[in-house]
Amino acid sequence: MHNRFSAASIALVLLAALPAPAQQPPAGGGFPAYKPPHMADGHPDLNGLWQSFVTANWDLADHEAQAGPHAELLGAYDAEPAGQSIVEGGEIPYQPWALQKKKDNFKNRITADVSSDEKWHALGDPEFKCYMPGVPRATYMPFPFRIVQGSSPYILMAYEFTTATRIVRMNWKQEAPAPSWMGWSRGRWEGDTLVVDVTGFREETWFDRAGDFHSDALHVVERYTPASPYHLMYEATIEDPKVYTRPWKIRFPLYRRMEPNAQLLEFKCVPFTEELLYGRFRKPGFQAAPEGGVR
Amino acid sequence: MSRLASIIVVAALSAAAQTPTPAKKTVAAKADAGKKPPVFRTPWGDPDLQGVWNDATSTPLQRPGGVSAKDVLTDEEAVDFQSDLANDLSRDRRDGGPEADVNRAYNEHWMDSRRLKITSDHRTSLIVDPPDGHIPALVPLSPERRKTRADRAAANARFNAGLPADFSDMSLPVQCIIRTDSPPYLPTIYNNDFQIFQSPGYVVIAPEMIHSARVIPVDGRPHLSKNLHQWLGDSRGHWEGDMLVVETTNFRTDDGVIFQGANPATFRITERFIRVDATSLNYEFTVEDPTTWSRPWTARIPWNKIDPEEQMYEYACHEDNYDMIHFLSGARAREQREGK
Prior knowledge:
The complex is a heterodimer of chains A (295) and B (340). Chain A is built from six helices and nine strands. By secondary structure, chain A is α+β, with helices and mostly antiparallel strands. Chain A has one domain (48-64, 81-275). By secondary structure, chain B is α+β, with helices and mostly antiparallel strands. Chain B is 21% helix and 19% strand. Chain B has a six-stranded antiparallel sheet with strand order 2-10-9-8-7-6, with no helix packed on it. A four-stranded antiparallel sheet of chain B has the order 1-3-4-5, with no helix packed on it. The chains are: A alpha+beta (295), B alpha+beta (340). The interface between A and B is large, with 56 and 59 residues.
């Protein structure tokens, strides 16, 4: 007892000797205060090709490096990288039934059966089937996206993955006219932060390959804040009273792609899924023409 | 949601080539001769093309028979031409038997009513060069390309007979791989909206018929390396006065990628966009391929802002491509029933 007390005292003394932590970090999170250049309308210029470098597309929460679902075929090729949670507080606050569904989703993540309308969307990660990723997943997939901000009431977000697109309508009143994969995005400026309120989601998108999911009641509020000429801080508050016990937040930086020839390339992934989804309906013995034609 | 309707129209647009007549040099897309276009500029000084545009028209790509050789009609002639075309496209006919009736009624459900009007300048074809309004004659094709075309025709025949053998029998639009996002842009039965976005150094065109954004750098950067190929190719634009001129290269070589089955190795496409007034722009494309057509050819399609409230909505294609399963599982069931 005596010894342990001494050890604790020494630790406290050592801690006190460390330099005091910096002042509360600014909105940029770890970045010094930054005043971005503005466009003609007085708002920050978010144009550019952006990409995240988190591993949240595998799992929003803490995850250890692990074998992929087909290690026996693919070895280290489909192994999954380790990563720290980007969820504030670490865990997604699921209602108990929903936590079980997330686990079932994970189990079925590489299962697809489009032979019946009921199973069409019930099985498999939408990413696996090349479906539009939804929000916020599109922002942390391992692909870049381009923000196109001009002088109209619209900002376009064009994603490389399955060439998904989404139009942000600025200061817009009209509610979502119909549910959609990428949701109905309405934007506004709060100082130098672009705030995007997204509703009108279809329920089928997932947040990651770990099976994290939501319902049609999903409401996402995103915040894009310039943190340097080369970084945006991204934050999203996720609310869905049908699935979670309270709203929760994710937060990570976006990096500007700096290669002089950087551009959005094409990832039209439908052809990569057709054998998986439709191969079973082929006429027995039919020989399909080789991909690529005459080159 | 079925896409068969649009496919029928796309197929109709790719009608067989006709004999050309010698032609004079094309006039580039311009506002009507003599009228100087008003200046629409972005805050950073580029011509301003931003907005939601619609390119629907009933004016066919090629001049149909029956309108003589006139390229532009009088007001009176235009009324008849428009009503004939609308009649051809609409359901109110009973000359094709019950199956055709059902198809027309089905297509009518999707029909964009703006698709039933001819261009406001009363032209009889979208093709402005050659002056006869027809796609130039084909040159003799290599044996490989004749085989590719024959394979495609056989696949289309299986599909049309309700017996597609495989997903690869479907056209790229039915597979939801490329639709109206690939140049050149031509009107179809529905979803004729395009939204143009601009930012310093970029023009971006998003069609409503499928989700994809065609990013066109206008900052002078070179094309992608010749080792990289894309379904939509690789576009670069530049301004010639108020006109946006776009060249697209680096197309993939899969059958169906290049407009009208032209040869990826020799195909060239140039598109021109020019603002005419607050609610219209002229879109023009010139295609050339000496291993496919006997001469280059050019079409002009007006793009209109039909309604200031017009909005683009998400079009999920592959995500709910029930057609694919219904066509294929239907074909297998039919074969089983008929003992094939």
